[in-house]
Specification:
2 copies of one chain form a homodimer. By secondary structure, chain A is α/β, with parallel strands linked by helices. Helices cover 37% and strands 19% of the residues of chain A. Chain A contains 10 helices and 12 strands. Chain A has a 6-stranded mixed β-sheet with strand order 2-1-3-5-6-4, with helices on both faces. Chain A has a 6-stranded parallel β-sheet with strand order 9-8-7-10-11-12, sandwiched between helices. The first copy, chain A, is globular. Chain A starts with 6 loop residues before the first strand and ends in a 5-residue tail after the last helix. At the A-B interface, strand 1, helix 1, strand 2 and helix 2 of A face strand 1, helix 1, strand 2 and helix 2 of B.
């Protein structure tokens, strides 16, 4: 129940109609008994400065920032976390003593979502599909997981080259390289982990996959697909058929949101077990996720 | 339940901690099945421009404006209703095609709250205590009710004189005058209606009243006190003891809020009978009103 004391949080983006954040964050707000409410605002790029000024004027708790504003919003913030500086993007703003501080919680969401699979990353060789904003956040996360080598492939070679260079120079991953689709099977054989950080396989193109040939995928691999709708992509299905451990992006989505809530409230909320499963069930049901 | 499609409304003021609007408006939002939520923002005067820009940037449905911003906000709006022009104050802003339109719903709240007592005002002589912002809204409402004469009394003579002049020249009330406390009993005898639009008698000073001597108050009078906490002021109790019909300001508060909701949603919502009583009961209970 909203009261006069209730703090407002929001997500801004364009488009915003399909955002899962209000559903997810209001569930967490209720679960953690926080006196807050979370709404979605449809915001155009030319209004970003007014949004940041609005956070201050309205004395809001903070906001999440989503596509396409994660980079442009940085022109208007007062402070940036180290991760924001390195990634050049933010998804969380917080009002602190009249100033706007920017954070990025996607890398932490990726890491927290790994759970017991986290140990697989230590000193591992990782193959990642995609070189956009999500891939950049994952590359940063991989640097914190002490991987040994990151190989990037993207339909645009220059994007893959650029992210490989950034991952090595800025994120300090020891070895980075790019690979063409013709050499992908050799790379899979050489890697322990395959990550899809591209949009290939997302609804409605659920039959598509970054891989055509799964012959190099084995039960020693770990496949992480950032997509959460469908809950099981063609990549995940085919890999699982070969005995591979697979994971989708729903936990990452939840934990990046939880991390925002922790930042805003300065509290170490924990979400796991039955409660986490309940939230995932509600998100699947309310959003009409496909399996 | 807040969803991605949910429209946000808010009230801005300074202070704001004791506002009843979130409780009242969220009850009405639920009752009328509107996909909206209503929060309170603590806003300082130097941030009013950023607030109006924020309504546009966030694409909010609209806001209520309360003390001390009702006049200053007008510097930043694009359009004003006729009532706002006349009163020089607004309590409701609405985003319309990228512009901010200003409305004032207090006069309409006063009129709607009268119910069957409305007919008492036609061609009546009215005595009003107070000459501040609330009194000005009531004076405007009285002009719409076709009263014959308005007599104003205030502890600051100049304020009473100014409002009497405005009520005659701008609001077109046929006869207006001011009166000193020494002549109040003659004025009461000459009036059908007594209105308290001052703060005298409000919590915590519940023993105070604008009247010391009730000898001129009869069962032919109608006493309207804009105060709603306590629910029955010393003025109301003493008048009722003399057989007078009395009314407090709670219905006015509710109907000015309902009018804002109608403006924002472009819908002719109706609130009466058991539903109105339920809302009043919740407001009394949640806010710890005194009887």
């Amino acid at each position: 129940m909203i009261k006069t004391s209730t703090t407002l949080f929001a997500v801004i983006g364009d488009p915003i109609a399909h955002s899962l954040s209000p559903l997810m964050q209001n569930w967490m707000i209720h679960y953690f008994k926080i006196d807050a409410a979370y709404v979605a605002f449809h915001v155009k790029t030319h209004h970003l400065k007014q949004c940041v000024d609005g956070i201050k004027a309205f004395n809001m708790g903070g906001i999440n920032v989503t596509v396409p504003h994660k980079e442009q919003i940085l022109k208007h913030v007062d402070q940036k976390s180290r991760a924001v500086e390195l990634l050049g993007a933010a998804n969380t703003l917080k009002l602190k003593d009249g100033s706007i501080a920017a954070y990025v919680t996607d890398p932490f969401g990726f890491i927290e979502s790994l759970g017991n699979n986290r140990s697989r990353f230590e000193n591992a060789k990782v193959l990642m599909f995609g070189a956009g904003g999500a891939a950049k956040s994952v590359a940063y996360a991989l640097s914190r997981l002490n991987i040994n080598k990151l190989t990037i492939t993207d339909i645009i070679d220059e994007k893959a080259d650029l992210l490989a260079a950034t991952a090595k120079q800025a994120f300090k991953i020891p070895h980075t390289e790019t690979v063409h689709s013709t050499d992908i099977n050799d790379c899979i054989s050489d890697s322990a982990i395959i990550i899809n950080a591209s949009a290939v396989g997302m609804m409605p193109d659920t039959e598509k996959s970054v891989l055509n040939d799964y012959s190099a995928v084995t039960n020693r691999h770990f496949v992480f697909d950032l997509i959460y709708n469908p809950g099981q992509t063609a990549l995940m299905k085919n890999a699982r058929n070969r005995g591979t451990v697979v994971q989708n992006g729903l936990d990452m989505l939840i934990f990046q949101g939880l991390q925002s809530l922790r930042i805003w409230m300065n509290e170490e909320y924990e979400l796991k077990g039955a409660a986490l499963n309940e939230l995932k069930g509600i998100m699947k049901q309310e959003s009409g996720f496909h399996e």
